[in-house]
Specification:
Chain lengths: 111, 113
């Protein structure tokens, strides 16, 4: 089992829809959770962080964390073509004391 | 100025040549990382350093070496480049607390012919 798992996609959504990106992790002691956006050929850019159960909203982005289910998600409301990118989930492992990245989900927003 | 810089940004070289990629940061972070990314694949960790005296191998360290010259500088070397080392290379820094995350440089696109 991978430490951080994401569906590789591509996830295709129409413009204006809600995109839902999911991530599961194996280390129950994980403390911190991050979402990065990466455009093709560019470096990953941090867009959201979440540390406690529940929802955290920032503009069109909402991160959701459920530690009991070991699940973190990112919702993008009113998706725009400019949101088309790969989204990386990263988890700060309690056991490893290191940040572990998932392989990313490719999101394609269709105009 | 960018917090994490990488030089060069692009490099084309030939098989067997020695190549050094450099990373500098002004964030004051102790931890630094080198990753490679191939098309369609995720980030793969090459080496990481938790402080100037600490160097650790990642999952794909064969064919690479590193040097942590100072807190702010972390270099990656390919002693004898081969074509399957053609990739996008990223440097990242981290404060080392669970409340913080990694910050990436702009990347170096390396092509080995």
């Amino acid at each position: 089992q991978k430490e951080v798992e994401q569906n590789s996609g591509p996830l295709s959504v129409p413009e204006g829809a809600i995109a839902s990106l999911n991530c599961t992790y194996s280390d129950r002691g994980s403390q911190s959770f991050f979402w990065y956006r990466q455009y093709s050929g560019k470096s990953p850019e941090l867009i959201m962080s979440i540390y406690s159960n529940g929802d955290k909203e920032d503009g069109r982005f909402t991160a959701q964390l459920n530690k009991a289910s070991q699940y973190v998600s990112l919702l993008i409301r009113d998706s725009q073509p400019s949101d088309s990118a790969t989204y990386l989930c990263a988890v700060y492992g309690g056991a490893t004391n290191k940040l572990i990245f998932g392989t990313g989900t490719l999101l394609a927003v269709q105009p | 100025d960018a917090d994490v810089t990488q030089t060069p940004r692009n490099r084309i070289t030939k098989t067997g040549k020695r190549i050094m990629l450099e990373c500098s940061q002004t964030k004051g972070h102790d931890r630094m990382y080198w990753y490679r990314q191939d098309p369609g694949l995720g980030l793969r960790l090459i080496y990481y350093s938790f402080d100037v005296k600490d160097i650790n191998k990642g999952e794909i360290s064969d064919g690479y070496s590193v040097s942590r010259q100072a807190q702010a500088k972390f270099s990656l070397s390919l002693e004898s480049a081969i074509p399957n080392q053609t990739a996008l290379y990223f440097c990242a820094t981290e404060a080392g607390t669970s409340a913080d995350t990694q910050y990436f440089g702009p990347g170096t696109r390396l092509t080995v012919l």
